[in-house]
């Protein structure tokens, strides 16, 4: 079957690149197989023009993957006149977007929907990046370490990582995970907790990201000299969201304005 051959070919390619093997998700592949004919009909102008977009979005959402995901990638190709899977893979990898989906080192799962044809190869697919289990405090240390590495590269003083008198980060993480708070609520709590111990003005930022290791810091965090940074990290998935996001709350205050312990 084309689906199984395709997954094997993808994993052989990833093995050569020292990337983790992808596990096929049968339920999502079944969904993909039902969507593929509508996707290609729409793409070739033979069906509802919106079907292709809706099928791609459904694959990216991965409702049948049954793991908590933070990111996904989608691709499709219809290759006429050959049944050579190596040529099919060359066409897929020639597209930067599809190549990223197939070679994402964070991806662990894949779903594929083939269209069987006697003289062609055709399929839609999606890969999925799971939410990693992580230690909140270790994540905070890693973020501050990366932040200060970047500040040193910019010839700026180290940002002082400051602790709230109580573990407000745990409060924020708990309320995000339970959906009692959204990201804006978390940011507001971080601001209010910081205002209690800061004599001067405080500035807050909140980011929803799919990767704790490579997200972009708020520009001010990388530009202002002599800052204290308060930090909280959690995860949040809105009621109708297909994917979870890491939530990173920054609050900045001037050094010398703080009345609590710093690291």
Commentary on this structure:
This protein has 263 residues and is of the alpha/beta class. 41% of the residues lie in helices and 24% in strands. It has helices at residues 2-16, 26-43, 51-61, 85-93, 96-103, 136-153, 168-177, 183-197, 219-223, and strands at residues 23-24, 69-80, 109-117, 120-130, 160-161, 203-209, 227-236, 245-254. Strands 1-3-4-2 form a four-stranded mixed β-sheet, sandwiched between helices. The chain has a four-stranded mixed β-sheet with strand order 5-7-8-6.
Topology:
Blueprint lengths: L1 H15 L6 E2 L1 H18 L7 H11 L7 E12 L4 H9 L2 H8 L5 E9 L2 E11 L5 H18 L6 E2 L6 H10 L5 H15 L5 E7 L9 H5 L3 E10 L8 E10 L9
Parallel strand pairs: 1-3, 5-7
Antiparallel strand pairs: 2-4, 3-4, 6-8, 7-8
Helix pairs in contact: 2-3, 7-8
Summarize the structure.
The protein has 263 residues and is α/β, with parallel strands linked by helices. Helix content is 41%, strand content 24%.
Shape: elongated
Average pLDDT works out at 92
What is the N-to-C succession of helices and strands?
Answer: HEHHEHHEEHEHHEHEE
**Strands, count:** 8
Distance between the termini: 58 Å
Provide the gyration radius in Å.
23 Å
Structure class: alpha/beta
Q: What kind of sheet is the major sheet?
A: 4 strands, mixed
Task: Report low-confidence residues grouped into runs of 5 or more.
Answer: none
Helicity range: 40-55%
Give the number of helices: 9
The main sheet orders its strands as 1-3-4-2
Tell me the β content.
Answer: 15-25%
